[in-house]
Amino acid sequence: AGTISDAARNHATGARPATGADHPAGSGISERTPLVLVSGRRLFAELSQDEDFGLVQRGLLMLCKTAKGLEEEAEVAEAAHQIGLKAEVLDAAATAAIDPDITMDVAGSVHFPEDCHLSPARFMSSIRKRILGLGGVIESGVEIDQIETHNGQVAAVAGGGKRFEGTKFVVAGGSWSARLLETAGLRLPLQ
After folding, report:
1. Of 36-40, 74-78, 98-102, 129-133, which gets the smallest average pLDDT?
2. Straight-line distance from the first to the last Cα atom of the chain, in angstroms, rounded to the nearest whole number
3. Chain-wide mean pLDDT for the chain?
4. For residue 64, what are the CA distances in angstroms to 60, 98, 104, 106, 148?
5. Burial class of 11 by CB neighbour count within 10 A (0 to 12, 13 to 18, 19+)
């Protein structure tokens, strides 16, 4: 899952994730808010109520060594504001005040207070347990290299001599996701 600062960075650079444009008025989701961010945060919070995988909202502090770096990161903060996210540009003194026990040689920083962190190993263990508990099957060591579509919908995925049919699929191949999605004519911009 992307972080708040990732969403703002995508907004600042022109990458356009799916947005909340189709959400009803009063839902608290702006048409400019990236759905993956809103949905991801909500789902992580819901899942963490059932099992502790170390989800904490600690924020993220982007340290900037130079004034030019701070200026560039301030653009990301502005993009964050435009999509309804909190971000604060701090000078060197305000940055030092956040953690006074650490000596920092920086021009300043941008603080994204809503960023969350978790333990990936504990999260994956939790998800694995949930899937198996719901009767799901986890296939390991199968490299999916093809996406089959029917009437504009993904109908199956295949690879390694195996084929898996379904109505919903999760693509979680990291930097390899874009290449896989291209087999179905889909484009996923990654940084």
Report:
1. 36-40
2. 14
3. 80
4. 13, 15, 10, 6, 45
5. buried
Closest CA to 90 of 114, 121, 119, 111: 111
Beta bridge partners of 109: 63, 90
Residue 165: CB atoms within 10 A of its CB come to 11
Spell out the SS3 assignment of the chain: CCCHHHHHHHHHHCCCCCECCCCCCCCCCCCCCEHHHHHHHHHHHHHHHHCCCCCEECCEEEEECCHHHHHHHHHHHHHHHHCCCCCEEEEHHHHHHHCCCCCCCCCEEEEECCCEECCHHHHHHHHHHHHHHCCCCCCCCCCCCEEEEECCEEEEEEECCEEEECCCCCCCCHHHHHHHHHCCCCCCCCC
Phi/psi for 58 (5° steps) reads -110, -15
Q: Quick one: pLDDT at residue 3?
A: 46
Query: Quick check: 74 pLDDT over 80?
Result: yes
Q: Which of 81, 78, 7, 12 is nearest to 38 (CA)?
A: 7
Q: pTM here?
A: 0.58
Which pair of structure tokens corresponds to residue 62?
């982007």
Residue 179 has pLDDT above 70, yes or no: yes
